[in-house]
Structure formats: C-alpha cells, structure tokens
Amino acid sequence: MLKIHLRTFVNYSLPIFLTLFCLAVTPQRALAQSATTTAENKNEDVNLDTQLYLIVGANQEVSDSKLPALLDPVIKQLKSALPFKNYRVAATLLNRVKSDGRLSLLWIGGPLFESAAETKHTPSFNEFNVRQVRVVDDAEGKKVIRMEGFKFGTRIPIVTYNGMAAVGTPPAPIINYENTGLNTDISMREGEPVLVGTLNVGPSGDAIILVVSAKRAPR
Question: Rounded to two decimals, what is the model's pTM?
C-alpha cells in the first residue's frame, strides 16, 4: 500500500510542478524580450557623426602640411612607425548615419598625390562603404562604436610619358588607373580617431593613410 500511495503522489505532483515551473519562467522570458525590444527601439533613435580622413604620407615636400589638432595622436603614432617625412590631409568626409544603419559614398576628387597634378586630367575615383554602424558595450561596459564591413577603394592615376614625342614638343602624358583599397571591421571609442590602415601606392612610394572617428550626434 505504501508503494501505491507513493506512485499516486508522484504522478499527480509532476504536472503541478511543471505548471508552476512554466509560470515562473514565462514572465522572465517576456521581460527579457521586452527589455531587448526597448533597447533596440532606443538604439534606432541614435544618430552618429562620422569623420573619414584621407592622409597622404610622402617623402617629398607638400604644399600644405597643416593637420587638424584632432589628428595629433594619430600623426605621432605614424611618425614613430612609418618613414615618411611629411603628411597632409587629402580629403575629409563628414557624414551622419543612424545606429544600425549603413553608409555608402562614391565621389570624384582631385589628384590625391601632388606628383599626379601635372595634368588636369587626373581625377581620383573613390568609394567608401560601411555595411553597418552600431553603438555597443565593450567588455568593460563602456560605449564603443563598431563599423562592420568597412571598405575604402580608390582608382589612382599613374602618369607616365611617351618617349617618342617629336623633336621640339613636350612628351605626351600617358595616364593609367590602378585600383587599390582596404576591407576590415573595426571598433573605436567615441570621439577618438583611430588608424584604420595604410595603402602604399605609386612609383614614388607615397601612401594613403585612413583615419576614422565617430561619435553620437547631439539631439
């Protein structure tokens, strides 16, 4: 009789236990889903101001070597790691993008290198893309900005000259475009410029240096 009563107690109590367990877990899961939804909705309202700097490193003299004070830490890092004598900002791109959004730019600019400026027919064709920009927490719980699918590409004009020019006439320039670029994923602290990478281009050994920064835009 003892065994029969014990089985009866277990058989009836098991459904009750499972019911109580489900009731205890379901509200927690609902609260977690609600918190996640609230965080996502809040994140959608965040706009980010991004800055991309194209810096040229060269051993020749440059016409304008003045650099923004914001880039002082980066330039100090470059001078300790790279052998270039001079640096100049070839282009600055300012854009606003929503967190969890994407950024895509195509533009035609002047020659990135002064050695290619000998003719007016040497523009540069440039592309800048970020697949997703997000504000996230790092391992220390601090806000960082993550750029996933960061991509920069440019077509650089390489100028050479025809040595078969007629006597008394200057040699005609021959312009060939070469593709170069960089793809990566990066994270950065808000408002602090970071060095993304360098691209060595051209026969003179010059380099394009990519620096990016981002911060939350004021409301």
Answer: 0.71
